[in-house]
Amino acid sequence: MRKAVLITIVAAAGASIVGLAGCGTGTGKEAVAEQKSNPAASQNEMNPQPRDKVRQGGKVTWAIDSTIVNFNMDQLDGSNGVGKWVIYAMLPQLFLFDARATPRYDPDYLTGEPELTPGPPQVVKYKLNPKAVWLDGSPITAADFIAQWKALDGKNPAFHIAASNGYDQIKSVVQGANKFEVIVTFAKPYADWKGLFWPLYPVSTHTNPETFNDGWKNGMLTSAGPFRMASYDATAKTYTLVPNEKWWGNKPKLDQIVFRVIDDNAEPTAMANGEIDLMDVGPSADEYNRVRSIPGVDIRVAGGPNFRHITFNGASPMLKDVNVRQAIAMAIDRAAIAKAELGQLPVVPVPLGNHIFMENQNGYQDNSGVVAYNPGKAKQMLDAAGWIVQGDKRVKNGQTLALNLVIPGGVAVSRSEAELIQNMLGQVNVGVSINTVPTDNFFDKYITPGQFDMTLFSWLGTQFPVGESQSIYRKPVGDKVQQNYARVGSDQLDHVLDQAVQELDPRKAIALANQADIMIWQEVHSLTTYQRPDIWAAKKGLANVGAYGFASIPYEDIGWMQ
Q1: What is the pLDDT of residues 36-59, one digit of tens each?
Q2: Domain 3-221+534-560, CATH class in plain words
Q3: Looking at the chain, which terminus has fewer C-beta neighbours within 10 angstroms, N or C?
Q4: Are strands 534-539 and 454-460 parallel, antiparallel or unpaired?
Q5: What is this structure's pTM?
């Protein structure tokens, strides 16, 4: 599934290959400042260093902008992207990805590449590394895979899942020749099968719905990665990770990774004061300009699969009418938003015209024409929908067209975008109230339960853009929205998305994905505003971490250069 994040890829822990980060090394601010083109999808900058060039010991303090509501990433409240950076250091991922998003099996968890029989039926056989164990010493086995499939296939509503993507295409998961062999048989072809079963959770927590939904709220229940959770300091808002004594792979270089919760706007000051070593700059020109002037700090840039967007709540009384949503969309100048937010950054400020593919990805085409900026037509459509201008407002049946735009506190980018939208919609006599809410409660108290008319945040993409988008755009069933916070969809869209993920020919899959994207624009589920810059600030000498883009983060190789 895609991960929602406030300011703002699937990554894999357990990397034992040096230099997995690929193309870039950490460049200085001078080099980045001269760049004025979008990074290629294959570009990243993590200062990749061989393990023998990284000293043993020390700690890294990594800034995150909100607390983690649930450490179960499969649970609806656990799909926040911030948690990913913490959790991936501690749980199994089956594949490692290079900067071009090319996967290969992770030898810490698998003994070889899984065996694929295209079928029909499509069958995948995994052979697990017998050395791989959970924190209590119990081995990782087929039982863990079986439990994860049953929890996430969407058939048991007691499991409050974030997404059933791919798991609902599986017919069976069984043990093979022994407990270290897993055989997955699909009812329908599923092209993105390598995106399943990671992060992997244990059978002990994915069998009981109560444990699945609530057991991970207060912290990690186990670990099977290079690090484990040592403590959470609620006062300092810090999560401290230490090396996992049961880890069977390469020994982590760091003694500690400390994830510290800091308001987005305060992170540059913390970096200047030496309080943090790593921060996600993202699309904030203010943060970028502040951190690039700090001595001893690298700016690292990647071509990541992440984007900013405006989601409309189609269940809201004000926005149930698709014609009203289309009119509102036509009154929003996405190009102006992109220019305002990205103009001072080392990227091209262009609006994003696709919900599935990024501007620098193979398959991208601009499908946004149906809601192209046209405030004159927007006024006409609102008039036709019965919203008549009275004074400076629009009124229908005694009710004023006024929208509640919910944003998280302490996020300058969201505030700036919200004010631009408020002004634009004011030009067509639509009122917008900007409701700033606590960052820590943004998703679980407001977005997930639908307490908004419009909202702003980022989606963090993955190496599997088609399959992992289903949970966002699939038609809700009752109150089971998964990640479809817009609460709109159609059977036809679901059918085309299903066809896309079942299509094993990449060219045909891309064509189907774009067909689905056109429907998403027509439905006005959400407006993509711009591809979110993957820009990070890191202390000089910090190796094997930063702007990773599509690549895996080799947590055990993160550290300080000799």
Answers
A1: 457 787 788 999 999 999 999 999
A2: alpha beta
A3: C
A4: unpaired
A5: 0.81
